[in-house]
Amino acid sequence: MRARVEQLKSGRKRVLEACHEPCPIERGMRLIGGKWKGSILWHLKDGPVRFNDLARMLGGASKKMISQRLKEMEDMDLLKRKVLNEQPVAVTYEITPFGRSALGILEELKDWSEHQGI
Amino acid sequence: MRARVEQLKSGRKRVLEACHEPCPIERGMRLIGGKWKGSILWHLKDGPVRFNDLARMLGGASKKMISQRLKEMEDMDLLKRKVLNEQPVAVTYEITPFGRSALGILEELKDWSEHQGI
DNA sequence: CAGAATCCAACCGGATACTG
DNA sequence: CAGTATCCGGTTGGATTCTG
Fold it and tell me: For residue A15, what are the β-bridge partners?
């Protein structure tokens, strides 16, 4: 899976996986289906969240996992990293419009899980 | 992630992952988010499909992958395996009502992928 | 046709310790 | 606080070969 970079009007870049799966479902899963990715996005829906708060929300994920995923998701333009101030360092992660466009799927998934008693 | 077995009225069993993630999104992803799982389910929506046909539809997946996923998904009651006849052996995979209940999510995912040009 | 068996390299992800 | 660095065992998944 190789990355393709698309220039956005905003000046930022969106890295799309040059994932040549014929199936759009598989391609979508590569973006938001990885471990923790959906959860991360979901927890950002009500506003920016700080790193350690996110870690607490995710419960089982290690810092390493989280920072890896966050980096990937920033590259894909699903979220944006912001350094607020220094001493002590404060960083927040904020969902982008593109990331927000995926929330509907996640909400359906959430409802499904809950209704099916999973 | 340990399995819990639930007895269904049909007599079949559904293996639910005793996945204690606090987040329902993460739990749902464990069921239909794995590599190929969503695609498999999607390709079964119009009726039973045979093993090799499925392999062709999925393009990049090896037989090993597919048979592993199919087994997992049968255990989770997302689909049902049926041996049709013998010489040469014919087997089809058919989506269950439970599996069908997840199709809405996959359809949204598919639309999203296509509209976002992923 | 529909897999199972085996081999093996690559990656994943947890634990721990360290940094600015 | 928000990570990075390193170690390391376990899992994943491709390639290949074999079977009823």
Answer: A5
